[in-house]
Design a protein that fits this description.
Layout (H helix, E strand, L loop, with lengths): L3 H20 L3 H19 L2 H11 L3 H9 L4 H4 L2 H15 L4 H14 L4 H17 L3 H14 L6 H13 L1
């Protein structure tokens, strides 16, 4: 809910306050304040709005996830680089149901900015392969499918890859 820099300022102020508590021999207060500061540091690296949007998507509530994502007005200033990639990834997932052209742009932007997990990269490439297949770009779709299969080390998306390959043969 706070800007990324405000979170760090609050965490720093709480740490200074906890050091003062340690100096005054209030050890439990100091420990509690350090734990409170760690919450703000955690939310600096893992944005709370993106976490809530992921939870909504997990429940298949696209409308609720969209409402959470709409709260982020300017993702370049409100989020760190990694979170910005996931913001565009989630936006792409939301739009993949209705507007595939815009969804394709958002997935490419998310991959360009960067996603931390390989299975998220594989999911984005799989979505891009499906979009390319819909637009009759067979060569691009096969290339993206191969990249998605290479990134999917635990074979979590093996069934989707197989299904897309079968559909590619029909084109």
């Amino acid at each position: 809910m706070f800007n990324k820099y405000i979170k760090l300022i609050i965490a720093t102020a709480i740490v200074v306050w906890s050091v003062m508590q340690f100096i005054e021999s209030h050890i439990m207060n100091g420990i509690s304040l350090v734990l409170l500061a760690s919450v703000f540091v955690f939310f600096y690296f893992k944005n709370e709005i993106l976490l809530l949007a992921f939870l909504r998507l997990r429940k298949q509530d696209f409308e609720g996830a969209g409402k959470w994502l709409d709260r982020i007005k300017n993702p370049t200033s409100a989020l760190i680089k990694n979170q910005e990639g996931y913001f565009y990834f989630l936006q792409g997932l939301m739009l993949s149901q209705t507007n595939i052209t815009q969804s394709e742009k958002l997935f490419k932007k998310a991959l360009r900015i960067g996603l931390a997990m390989n299975h998220d990269k594989a999911m984005a490439k799989l979505q891009l392969a499906g979009i390319a297949m819909t637009k009759r770009r067979k060569r691009e779709a096969t290339m993206l499918l191969a990249e998605a299969k290479k990134l999917d080390k635990h074979n979590m998306m093996a069934e989707q890859v197989k299904m897309l390959k079968q559909q590619l043969k029909k084109i």
